[in-house]
Amino acid sequence: MKQSHNAIGLAAMTVLSLVSVTNAFGECKPAHQFKTVTPGVLTISTAEFPPFDIPGNDGALGGVEGDILKKIADKECLKINAQPVGFSSAIQYVLTGKADVSAGQWYRTADRAKVVGLTAPLYLDQLAIYSKEGYTKLGDLSGKQVGTVQGYNWTADLQALYKDNLKLYPTPVALAQDLQAGRVDAGLDSVATGRYAQNKGGYAGMKILVGAPDPRVRASVNPAQIGFVFAKGNEALGAALDADIAQMQKNGEVAQILKSYGMDPKGADVGPARLIP
Questions:
Q1: How many angstroms separate the CA atoms of 223 and 138, rounded?
Q2: What does residue 42 show for φ and ψ, rounded to 5 degrees?
Q3: How many Å is the Cα radius of gyration of the chain?
Q4: What CATH architecture is 2-124+224-268?
Q5: Which of 13, 175, 202, 229 is at a distance of 20 to 30 A from 110, taking alpha carbons?
Q6: Domain ranges of the chain
Q7: CB-based contacts of 206: which residues, under 8 Å, 6+ apart?
Q8: Maximum pairwise Cα distance, the chain
Q9: Which residues, including other chains, have CB under 8 Å from residue 43's CB and lie 6 or more apart?
Q10: CA 218, CA 220: separation in Å to the nearest integer?
Q11: Segment 217-268, tens digit of pLDDT
């Protein structure tokens, strides 16, 4: 008898997750219909990466991407359950069916699109120049000691441009330490991470300015578009996410979220969807 009741309850939960959810606030009708790993819940694999992803207690998720996902969850009558798992395994959680979506400031790349679904672009990862002088042109850094972080989509082009004058760092924190100590003249990193850190008291005396487009560094001309990752097999989820993102872009919600974290709201002007080769 107990098993029968459990089966009926599970079936009811599934129907509710696809049609409507009734809670203390009344009936909620989701904007779209799709399946999730846990009925009524949007499970997210993520890593701590302020200001984009800031995991909290009891499955909460803040930051730019967390706030976007919370608004999407509200539209779809879902609760958020964020699982902080680290960058190395976050996408694997989606591939193995442990999470519906992964948030980790994921670049929309052609290689990534071969194995997972990528949502419509959320915002741009803009390259900025960090310096006391307020440099805005990459050409102004010629002959100077410059630092950047390993593995970014602009790193290879910067190596070709600055050669031995470019120093690579394993993390933004390591770059910041040398920049503050004067061991490099300028740093090249994401505008978002720098301005967020500056709002928290970091990068004292530094000017963090978006670099002017330079054809020698492709990321300065066409900044990487960021999207959420989902399983290729759940196309209904992908379509729903894209529709919700499009609505949020249209009504200015994404731009407002960026602004609330000290980022340039123009980063929401993503242009046509494209993939990094």
A1: 15
A2: -100, 110
A3: 21
A4: 3-Layer(aba) Sandwich (3.40)
A5: 175
A6: 2-124+224-268, 127-221
A7: 130, 131, 132, 179, 180, 194, 198
A8: 78
A9: 36, 37, 81, 83, 98, 99, 100, 101
A10: 5
A11: 999 999 999 999 999 999 999 999 999 999 999 999 999 999 999 888 999 9
Give the length of the chain: 277
Rounded Cα–Cα distance for residues 149 and 115 (Å): 26
Report the C-alpha gap between 172 and 45 in whole angstroms: 22
- pLDDT at residue 166 in the model: 98
Evaluate whether the domain defined by 127-221 bears CATH number 3.40.190.10: yes
Please give the torsion angle defined by the CA atoms of residues 79, 81, 82 and 88, in that order, rounded to the nearest 10 degrees. Answer: -120
Nearest-CA neighbor of 194 among 184, 209, 174? 209
User: In this structure, are residues 60 and 82 in contact, taking their beta carbons and an 8 Å threshold?
Assistant: yes
Per DSSP, what are the bridge partners of residue 49?
A: 53
Looking at residue 10, its pLDDT comes to 38
